[in-house]
Amino acid sequence: MHDISFLNCTVDIEQKDQFLLAVVKGENSLVNAAACFNEIYGACIFYRCSNVLIKSYLSGASLDSIEMFDLIKKNYVKANSIGMRIAFVDMVTDHDENGLKFGENLALISGMHIRVFKELNEPQMIEWLMEK
Predict the structure, then answer these.
(1) Strands of 113-117's sheet, edge to edge?
(2) Which of 4, 47, 51, 102 has the greatest number of beta carbons closer than 10 A?
(3) Residues ≥6 apart with Cβ < 8 Å to 116
(4) 95-128: per-residue pLDDT in tens?
(5) How many CA atoms lie within 13 A of 109 on its CB side?
């Protein structure tokens, strides 16, 4: 298991049978979200596993649409290069659900394989990750 702390967030990554479980905690910001993605991407390469279930506990204001666009723009090529599939759930209930859907749609348009789940349902998330 990886446990990496940097900036104002931590990423705990655990290798499961057919996917990586990434638990992200800390302050929600573009810088932290980008750093967390880079850590998860690195773990995918290290473990040779492109399926990732992300539980996000990043607190604070949601990323705005420009920040979301910037995050995806800077990372979709890396994600696509290794065939990343991301099942994402935001565990902070006061974040903007429409913003998350916008990010999901933008990522899908960019060719990323991502699905945002409204609530934690690991069996359903894992089932989606295993679809090809």
Answers:
(1) 2-6, 9-15, 20-27, 51-59, 85-90, 113-117
(2) 51
(3) 88, 89, 90, 100, 101, 103, 104
(4) 878 888 999 999 999 999 999 998 999 999 999 9
(5) 9
- Longest CA–CA separation in the chain, Å: 36
Please give the angle made by the CA atoms of 116, 77 and 7, to the nearest 5 degrees.
70
For residue 4, give the 3-state DSSP assignment: strand
Query: What is the second-level CATH architecture of the domain 2-130?
Result: 2-Layer Sandwich (3.30)
Tens-place pLDDT, residues 31-62: 999 999 999 999 999 999 999 999 999 999 98
> CA-to-CA distance for 92 and 82, rounded, in angstroms?
29
- C-alpha span between 50 and 19 (Å, rounded): 7
Please count the helices (runs of H) and the strands (runs of E) in the chain: 4, 6
Mode of pairing for the β-strands spanning 20-27 and 51-59: parallel
- Residue whose entry in the numeric block shows the structure tokens 């065939």: 83
Per-domain boundaries in the chain: 2-130
